[in-house]
Amino acid sequence: MDELLTVKEVAEKLKVSRPTIYTFIGLGLKYIKLGERSLRFRPSEVERFVKTMEQKTK
Q1: In degrees rounded to 5, what are phi and psi of residue 39?
Q2: Which of 13, 14, 31, 38 has the fewest CB atoms lying closer than 10 Å?
Q3: From CA 29, how far away is CA 50, in angstroms rounded?
Q4: Which residues fall in a coiled-coil region (predicted)?
Q5: d(Cα 44, Cα 51) in Å, to the nearest integer?
Q6: What is the mean pLDDT of each run of 10 residues along the chain (58 residues)?
Q7: According to the model, what pLDDT value does residue 1 have?
């Protein structure tokens, strides 16, 4: 099972701002909601999202 990443960790990994991660959620980045204010991401899902976005720009 993948270790879950926080919004901050995903932003650091992708070298984008935290608000950009919320934009990515609107574009289809899947997340897991833990409680009312806590989101987590599977590394495999982040990779899938990046590949999808790369294909759209080609």
Answers
A1: -115, 145
A2: 38
A3: 9
A4: none
A5: 11
A6: 91 98 97 95 97 86
A7: 62
Helical (H) or strand (E) element with 29: none
Instruction: Answer whether 21's CB lies under 8 Å from 29's CB.
Output: yes
Residues 6 or more apart whose CB falls under 8 angstroms from that of 50 comprise: 14
Q: What type of residue sits at position 19?
A: P
Cα distances (angstroms) measured from residue 19 to each of 30, 49, 52, 55: 15, 16, 20, 23
Q: Is 19 helix (H, G, I), strand (E, B) or coil?
A: helix
**Does residue 2 contact residue 17 with C-beta atoms inside 8 Å?**
no
Whether 9 and 18 have beta carbons less than 8 Å apart is answered as: no
Locate 34 and state its tokens. 């833990």
**39, two tokens:** 């989101």
